[in-house]
Amino acid sequence: MKLTILGGGGFRVPLVYGALLQDHAEGRVTHVVLHDLDAGRLSAVTRVLAEQAAGVPDAPEVSATTDLDEALRGADFVFSAIRVGGLEGRANDERVALAEGVLGQETVGAGGIAYGLRTVPVAVDIARRVARLAPEAWVINFTNPAGLVTEAMSRHLGDRVIGICDSPVGLGRRIARVLGGNPKEAWIDYVGLNHLGWVRGLHIAGRDELPRLLADPDLLGSFEEGKLFGTDWLRSLGAIPNEYLHYYYFNREAVRAYQQAEKTRGAFLHDQQARFYAEMRKPDAPALKVWDDTRAEREATYMAENRETAGAGERDEDDLSGGYEKVALALMRAIARDERTTLILNVRNRRTLSVLDTDAVIEVPCLVDANGAHPVTVAPLPDHATGLVCAVKAVEREVLSAADSGSRATAVKAFALHPLVDSVNVARRLVEGYTEVHPGLAYLR
Fold first, then answer.
1. Rounded CA gap, 3 and 125, in Å?
2. Quick check: 403 and 121 in contact, CB under 8 A?
């Protein structure tokens, strides 16, 4: 089975390959094709993968190419993890937004809109090529903003594109662990959009244990989200929000922390990864060790400004292992081998949330089998969550419309309608600022 990884020179690709190395069952991935526009990055990542595979007799074959059509032909699965504009683009997203006093995070607020506007046209081109060159392939999208990009691609690939994210998985794992349950056996009642969802129940052996967690301040304050949001606010919500909702519930504090930080997250990662790829140009560099040391630093500093604002302290060691690669592997297994499972995924709504139309991509538990991912029926969201989901989905639709039409006015509308952008004039200045620093937004007119 052939897996093509778009963004194959990306830093986190070894996580995916490491998961594949642990899969020895029949019907597994036997050939991995890495595609990237940067041959130097491809070379660096290929070296890391070679060291990972050392001593593994049935390790999947790895090849690399800068030719997109070549990479896609004959693929059974396509894993998309591209970053249009690179980390320099992300740093610019943050800088332009923070100068206007609004959030520049890569998936939330102004930064997420800017990232979406330059990513959607590229993702749509990829979707069209997949439909032409590998019509039977399943596309697993991890490219951010994941929900928005998945919806853009679904207009050309239908249900054969599925978005993944590790945030709901990590959240469910932490809650189950605190409650003394096995995360693999827990049913997580989670619903929302990508990076905008809530756990409303966690069932262990058929019993919802979330009320027990909410009623115990010590338990509630013992894990990441309890420290991040505070126990009083979680008890008021009656749910556990995805960590990215900290940007909404504590927006003023988050913006101030990012403005005062020595470097934005994008600037930090840009410099960190520049050091990694520079080190990898040395022929004698221990590739796997250099990558692993860099990854550990990356994970430890994740959302550091938010945790500092909340007084949440350092991340727990158990939360430093990521998880999106495990979701991707479980998804591929379920489809390729009909190994039925339940995963929280980004898929078309159908009739799951009545407040959204059937084609809106949402993030919910899905039953996965050989025919793809099928969203599970969920109870309606409370009014406060419904309002936020509908508002952000409306913004996503304006982004898609702007990307399709090239309308600068529609791009301004997308920024202005976002709950975290507080003025139409700010929205206009954001569009001006982003088009100045991003060549990829030259299509807006």
1. 19
2. yes
User: What are 53-107's pLDDT values in tens digits?
Assistant: 999 999 999 999 999 999 999 999 999 999 999 999 999 999 999 999 999 999 9
pLDDT tens for residues 18-57? 999 998 888 899 999 999 999 999 999 999 999 999 999 9
8 Å CB contact between 374 and 175: no
Q: How many helices (H) and strands (E) does the chain have?
A: 20, 13
pLDDT per position as a tens digit, 274-326: 999 999 999 999 999 999 999 988 887 776 667 576 675 655 555 545 578 99
**Residue 368 DSSP class:** E
CA neighbor of 291 nearest in space, from 21, 49, 25: 49
CB 131 within 8 A of CB 268: no
Asked if 337 and 173 count as a contact pair (C-beta separation under 8 A), the reply is: no
pTM attached to this predicted model: 0.94
- Cβ burial, residue 371 (10 Å; 0-12/13-18/19+): exposed
Determine the straight-line distance between the first and last CA of the chain, rounded to whole angstroms.
44
User: How many Cβ atoms from other residues are within 10 Å of residue 44's Cβ?
Assistant: 25
What is the 8-class DSSP label of residue 358? T
User: Do 111 and 140 contact (CB within 8 A), yes or no?
Assistant: no
Helix or strand or coil: residue 257? helix
The CA distances from residue 114 to 39, 99, 270, 335, in Å, are 26, 14, 18, 33
Return d(Cα 144, Cα 441) in angstroms, integer.
17
**Number of Cβ within a 10 Å radius of residue 71:** 25
For the chain, state the CA radius of gyration: 21
Distance between alpha carbon 57 and the CA centroid of its chain, in Å? 32
Tell me which DSSP letter residue 317 carries. G
CA 306 to CA 314: how far, in whole Å?
Answer: 11
